Amino acid sequence: MPTPQNFIGLMSGTSLDGVDGVLARVNPQGQLAVQAHAFTAFNAPFKAELMALNQSGPNELHRAALAGNHIARHYADVVHQLLSSSGLQPQDIAAIGAHGQTVRHRPLEFDGDAALDRPPVGYTLQLINPSLLGELTGIDVVADFRNRDLAAGGQGAPLVPAFHQGVFGRPASCVTVLNIGGISNLSVLHPDGTVLGWDCGPGNALMDHWCNAHTGAPFDHNGTWSASGQVIPHVLAGWMAEDFLQRTPPKSTGRDLFNPAWLKARLPTDTLAPQDVQATLTEFTALACANDVRRHAPAAQELIVCGGGALNGQLMQRLARHLPGVQVIGSEQRGLPPLQVEAAAFAWLAAKTLRRETSSLPSVTGAQGARVLGAIYPR
Questions:
Q1: Where do the domains of the chain lie, and which CATH numbers do they carry?
Q2: Burial of 10 (0-12, 13-18, 19+ CB in 10 A)
Q3: How far apart are CA 319 and CA 78, in angstroms?
Q4: Residue 359 near residue 373, CB atoms below 8 Å
Q5: Of 244, 179, 227, 200, which Cα lies nearest the Cα of 20?
């Protein structure tokens, strides 16, 4: 029987805080065991540059290319940390799964032609120079996971529900998994093996932006600042009317929609207390996610939360308040710490790619069929 292989997964999400990486062993059945975890933060100027690249700007192709190189160097730093802490060498790693940094996500838009019966494909853009990453690490790299799903008519996101099913799914009950990064995405794992998943709406992106602008802190630690404020009902009601929240899955989004300009345009006055706006943003995130659980997974008995949002105590309390019949827990209670889940997913996806196994789910993305995802860049 083939033995498990070592894979590294690297993820930098829409929170723009930095790069999480895990080194994991993945056996031929797809079971994963994390061996090591590492993180490197983005400094403020680079975070600001990535934020700016979410919008059109001067010389953006040049800047995006350089940012891709910089991302590769950050990723390589995390790889070296993982190798050092585990005592392994590059030749001991089968491949790196490198997500890259999403700066644009506009699937199924722009380029269709109804007269030619040609549906739109749109695009998704993750900055990363996988060739440079391979040079810097001496390890095969798997990148560009999303575009094959787009080519097959899908959203290209989210990609983690299949992994969630393998790690958190249970045959006797409906389980939901909520990843709260910059954007929130929900996986619904039915006991019969059916998997659904989609983006719910904002996660940490708007909360982090508002907190940084008014306190200087990169995020609201444990939701303490939010807890000091009061929800503004009419503002919350306006945000909850956002069209994206009303759409039925499959659907995905990003900072193309939920960004500082979106927030500024929907604040009725500049005189609102900043802590009250933060409380309302926290409630907005929690309510959008909870509504999707109630609407699409009424039989769910458990909500497993991962991503940085799982570390926000106030946000977790609001989720539990809106889902009184559901056990709301952090993913560490099911064996995988919140900040390791997405990176572990890309280690798992890289293993699937090398084995030429499909890893996309048409029930999640709306694609015409399951596809082998990712492009391989040999060492």
A1: 5-158+339-377 (3.30.420.40), 161-336 (3.30.420.40)
A2: buried
A3: 32
A4: yes
A5: 179
What is the spatial distance between Cα 332 and Cα 89, in angstroms, rounded to a whole number?
28
Q: What is the pLDDT of residues 44-102, one digit of tens each?
A: 999 999 999 999 999 999 999 999 999 999 999 999 999 999 999 999 999 999 999 99
Q: Which residue has the tokens 């907005």?
A: 284
pLDDT digits (tens, 9 = 90+) for 353-365: 999 999 999 999 9
Cα–Cα separations (whole angstroms), residue 15 to 39, 98, 125, 206 = 14, 17, 16, 9
Structure tokens at 364: 């999640």
Q: Nearest to residue 103, comparing CAs of 74, 122, 128, 126?
A: 126
